[in-house]
Design a protein that fits this description.
The protein is 30% helix and 24% strand. With 272 residues, the chain is an alpha/beta fold. It has 2 domains: 190 residues, Rossmann fold (3-Layer(aba) Sandwich), CATH 3.40.50; 70 residues, no CATH class. It has a 7-stranded mixed β-sheet with strand order 6-7-8-3-9-10-11, sandwiched between helices. A 4-stranded antiparallel β-sheet has the order 2-1-4-5, covered by helices on one side.
Length: 272
Amino acid sequence: MAKSVRKKPAAQSRTDSVPLVELRDMSIAFGGIKAVDHATVDLYPGEVMGLLGHNGAGKSTLIKILSGAYKRDTGRIFINGEEVHIANPRDAKAHGIETIYQTLALADNVDAAANLYLGRELLTSWGTLDDAAMEAEARKVMGRLNPNFQRFKDPVKSLSGGQRQSVAIARAILFNARILIMDEPTAALGPQETAQVGELIRQLKADGIGIFLIEHDIHNVFDLCDRICVMKNGQVVGSASLKDVTKDEVLGMIIAGKCPEGAIAGPGAANI
């Protein structure tokens, strides 16, 4: 077991505010195999928390508990310091939690506005789709995120990867999301589009939205995240402010489960 006493990074000593989200002592098992084993992680407003680890580490499963896709076996969820119960995606949305999956889950054959309101369409007094109102709202939210976006009439299948990410993010925040879960948002994007997504994330931070970011690229992690939580075999290896650790130390956490002095060790940390 790793040492229990470590230097506590200043970014984690936030006594002046309550976490936007706290997942406390979360566990879930499938067929007797613990996919998440007593994991604890928190997130503050205007912060990007990177969730790191190899495939099968438990990070996606942990986030699916928060999004309502999985029901936890044990653990407690707190939003703004108050315990909440999330049993399904509808519960998560009611608490301002939105998820952007790697596939984006966009309807390729319709335009941006139709995707933003998919399943929550606005209707006129005659009961028909209010396309004008939906496009007007789409232009407002897209103007905040990506002022250069102009292709409101085009089906999203014709948009670039970065533009499609803009639509997916706009759909999430249109309905006042406060907590955003992003799964590999820059996967399969080129350098220019990756930079565009990075600007979108920084804009969300400026708006006070908290983001859980699942990411494998260590360079993107250091470019976009404020803190990280590394998981291995379903357990938390450790968490740290990126100001207190190096890239090599983060890679050591991911690969070997070694928790450096600049991090707070979790139950999954290896002996060092």
